[in-house]
Amino acid sequence: MVSQVVATSREKVCKTGPIVLLGAPGAGKGTQARKITEAYHIPQISTGDLLRENVAKGTSLGLAAKAVMDRGELVPDQLVCDMVAKRLLEPDCAQGFILDGFPRTVAQAEWLDNFLNGKLFEGHPCKRMPPIVIDIAVGYNQLLRRLTGRRSCPTCGRIYNIYLQSPRVPDVCDAEGTKLVQRKDDTEEVISERLKTYERQTLPLLEYYRTKGRLQTLDGDRDPDQVAAQTLQAIEHGHRL
Ligand code: AMP
Prior knowledge:
By secondary structure, the protein is an alpha/beta fold.
């Protein structure tokens, strides 16, 4: 796998380098990641999605992660970092990639810095490129509305919000006609735990990246297209930091 990346990457130039999207659960990281993918054609790597896929397939990682995720806590760093390492060495990451939901602890951020500068990444076009770090800041009440109202289509993955962006027919996907579902960890009890976990374990990351002069913070309370315009500007600006 590693040699495959090296072979592919020789002909490729890194477009954006690594992009790290930070923000509380419900801040809109996934939405912004999809907009960056459209603009730059680089993959979105959502650790939450990867873990949910593992849970659905019943892999050993999924079995280890499920109970922790159901409680709204964080999966152990080592498990998540190994999963991310494997994903970043896939050929589609050669021109850059968006990390959505990773890192989430200072230990994960340190691991990422070491990985990007380390042996396994040797020959990768994005090697040694410091990540562009964008924090999407959203007020607490808005986060709660976004998370408790979030529903998704199990067929096409489209995301709705029963308060902010409802489907034409209640609880039914506009495109597929499928009944919408709520994520298991989007219930009020688990949401409150996820937000506490964010404050305790992920907020210190802002200081980590601020000290390195990499942090850019956006106003994520605005509508998604306005946030996207700020996000794309931050990516351009991030290259000059
Ligand atoms: P998300 O979809 O990003 O809200 O993630 C859903 C759940 O997956 C989180 O509440 C955590 O249990 C787990 N998770 C996702 N990303 C990470 C990470 N970087 N480190 C540890 N756990 C994670």
